[in-house]
Amino acid sequence: MLERLRQLIRGWVPIRPLATRHRRRIGEHLLALSERDRFLRFGYQASDEQVLKYVDRLDFKRDELLGIFNRRLELVAMAHLAYSPAPQRPGQPAMAEFGVSVSARARGKGLGQRLFDHATLHARNRGIQTLFIHALSENTPMLRIARRAGALVERDGSESEAWLRLPADSMASHVDEALERHLAEVDFELKRHLRSLRRAREAFRRARARMSGGAGKP
User: Which fold has domain 2-207?
Assistant: First the structure.
């Protein structure tokens, strides 16, 4: 167990489940994406109104939303693991669709890869057998992640589809997910505590500056 914990911590990135209370932060994250990034994420040039409609329609009871927060508790990357709203037909593998977005200032840190890895772990622990990705063919970072994981990628002009067969869940996969969830919660609470300390310190500095400024007045 200790060895597995060391492996998880090495190169670890805190990923937390997102809930209804995070809807505003999700909207802020997606609205901050450039036109190009929105095009790659949604497959079309999404306007602010269309982005907000997407956020409003998010079903936190059916789907899984995963997020990465920076030290200021800003949502800098998120993944959407969408399950079919209807029961899977007999004989068909259970499937989920994966989508991801990363803020421009958080690029180059492998956050998209980490969200993909976490989503696959999350999906297989819920009996999902196939992970599906629909992306523009020019979205090379996303397709590279899919290919690296062993997904079958089929290109049809400007669009591509990737299919990744997931292994069955195991005791180890459930333990891994539980450990990651616990560590992410600890990390978030620590960041929240440090943010409160920073705010208190800034408030103290402002109060002291006002007192110093008024001390020399008659």
Answer: Aminopeptidase (3.40.630)
